[in-house]
Write a structure and sequence with these properties.
Blueprint lengths: L8 E5 L17 E5 L3 H7 L2 H6 L2 H9 L11 H16 L2 E6 L2 E6 L4 E2 L14 E4 L6 E4 L4 H17 L6 H9 E4 L5 H11 L2 H14 L3 E2 L1 E5 L5 E5 L12
Antiparallel strand pairs: 1-2, 3-4, 5-9, 6-7, 7-8, 10-11
Length: about 250
């Protein structure tokens, strides 16, 4: 029997506009439908097992998203936009943060999409071509998804178990981001290149290029202090984001 009550939903625009999903993908239209949080979803937020494993936010978003698609396909920037929308739909737009030693309330609806260069198109494989300015090597790279992020986190955690002194966050991310080097798509070649042949200046240029083409939201709002001075301030995602009573 169908329930006689309805749970309202909202359509959320994705920063990617759907450009970087393949044809026929449910997110190709650049929108996702989400429902408002219920008491059942609040149970997710208090699930100690999810909190300990660091998956509580993803479990929450998966419960709130109505559109049917593989969650691992979600681009990181689109996931950030969905997270902000989920917070607004669940607990409202007001978010208290600490700023210059004081608690202030910011309006989360003022968080805007980041400007990115949508004129730079990926190739048929969904990869961006970039010539490293210092070495002249040509690489192709893809925008990272939630699924990629999970693989990266697992790999970093595994390396940490081998040696706590291992700080591999930057290079591990590069190894998953780069899909070819001078036409060579072998994983062993890519990993060797990142470990031994990727110049620091080229790595920085590649990160800047990635940021330039990556759709995302900017966690910033414009704040005017008591003296009438206004400036853009960063909006940190703290425990209060989904646990406002914490």
């Amino acid at each position: 029997m169908e329930p006689k009550f309805k749970i309202p939903t909202e359509s959320v625009d994705l920063p990617s506009k759907g450009h970087y999903y393949p044809e026929g993908h449910p997110l190709k239209e650049g929108k996702v439908e989400m429902k408002y949080m219920t008491a059942r979803e609040e149970d997710i937020l208090t699930n100690q097992n999810y909190i300990t494993k660091g998956v509580v936010i993803d479990k929450l978003l998966q419960a709130l998203i109505v559109t049917d698609f593989p969650y691992n396909d979600l681009l990181i920037g689109d996931k950030n936009a969905i997270m902000v929308a989920a917070r607004i739909l669940s607990y409202g737009k007001d978010y208290e943060i600490e700023y210059k030693g004081e608690n202030i309330t910011v309006d989360l609806t003022e968080i805007k999409e980041k400007e990115f260069d949508a004129s730079i198109k990926p190739n048929e494989a969904g990869e961006f071509v970039f010539n490293l300015p210092k070495s002249g090597n040509e690489v192709t790279f893809k925008l990272l998804t939630h699924g990629d992020d999970k693989k990266i986190d697992r790999e970093i955690a595994g390396l940490k178990k081998i040696s706590r002194d291992n700080e591999t966050g930057v290079t591990t991310r590069m190894k998953h981001m780069i899909h070819s080097i001078n036409g060579d798509r072998e994983q062993s070649t890519i990993r060797q290149f990142v470990d031994q042949g990727l110049l620091a200046a080229d790595a920085r240029a590649l990160r800047e290029e990635y940021t330039r083409v990556q759709p995302d939201v900017e966690f910033k709002v414009y704040h005017v202090d008591e003296n009438g001075v206004g400036e853009d301030i960063d909006v940190p995602v703290t425990i209060n984001f989904f646990w406002p009573d914490a």
